[in-house]
Amino acid sequence: DQQVKQNSPSLSVQEGRISILNCDYTNSMFDYFLWYKKYPAEGPTFLISISSIKDKNEDGRFTVFLNKSAKHLSLHIVPSQPGDSAVYFCAAILVYQTYGQNFVFGPGTRLSVLP
Amino acid sequence: EAQVTQNPRYLITVTGKKLTVTCSQNMNHEYMSWYRQDPGLGLRQIYYSMNVEVTDKGDVPEGYKVSRKEKRNFPLILESPSPNQTSLYFCASSTLTRFGHEQFFGPGTRLTVL
What we know:
A: mainly beta; B: about 110 residues; globular
């Protein structure tokens, strides 16, 4: 059973509009949540993160919202640009102070921004 | 330039023939890990390493080995590859900070086991 879920395999948005990518998780002990963007033939690149003690983090056009009671986070991209077209992975981290950290990734959502 | 490198980028092999995928980072990161990406499953962690000589299993370690003899290198070893190990593999590294444990990923290795 997947601990991190992204229920929309794909999303299409018009250029200039808002893109909202959603992610749900099952483990309330996760310490951090991150979003990664992946272009074809490249490794994922870090986009934005949020600590479990916060409910919002903003970086330019990207904002991540965390709703701990609903175990839900979302990534908002405003305004969307054609270069944002990529696969977006949601990830959650459990930090073990003495022996490591466990990263759990969702299956990804393919975002297409149409000109 | 800060980067994570993997070699080879593409590999086709046959069942049972031992292979090693190398991973190297130049950022002096303590933490390194290996993932495989499969359709509909996202990235699943195979093994990770907190530092030199410290490794541990991730979610899907069966059929894989790793070693961490130097801080910069973290090779992935398939002693006897099988077709179900056909996948896209990513190596990643990170430092451990209180701001989120961001990982840097390599470009990926596409492995096909016939």
